[in-house]
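#structure-requests
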Amino acid sequence: MSSFPGSPRLIKGGLVVIDADSARVLRIISLQYNSETLTRTLQAQSAGSEAGHPVEPMRFKGPAVETFKLEADIDATDQLEFPDQNPGATRFGIQPQLALLESLVYPSALQLSAVNAQASSGTLEIAPMLAPLVLFIWGKSRIVPVKVSDFSITEEAFDPALNPIRAKVSLGLRVLSTDDLGFSSRGGSLFMAYLQTKERLATQVQSASFATLGIGGIG
């Protein structure tokens, strides 16, 4: 961050983990460095025509399926320069930060033990373990519930004890819409707010004229 008093405050992207039932915030995860790129893919959900039949006008079956792809760098160099202030970095490198991100795709040890206890007691039907709801935050206009669809880590440097001290994390996130969460849930409300923000932003673009397209109108 710049030391000039007039410089803008650096906003970091990140993830917020909340309880799916109570909406209580469980953890806030900020990226150490913002990703240089953010790839977004949107796939329309439309009613398709059968082969051999005329193509119908676009009819939406639901919100578009949107995915995010980003890469985040994690580096312990700054912390290792001041070991007295960051003893954890000296002992573990960046393993704590990696473990925190990995917790997004693992059930907890407590959940696994509970499932094992149910199975051992003869429970015939065991419900899948519910994960907390994850929100992807990328500025004020992008606060959206997501599901971690893929996750990879490339560890690039190690200390003498083989603790990773630099890594690149690749995250694939699928937006959860009202189709997935319903309208009455906290996640559904957040998705609707995200969609309404998109609609408001679209109104900020001035409509082009026919002349811009090289025509006088549509006859």
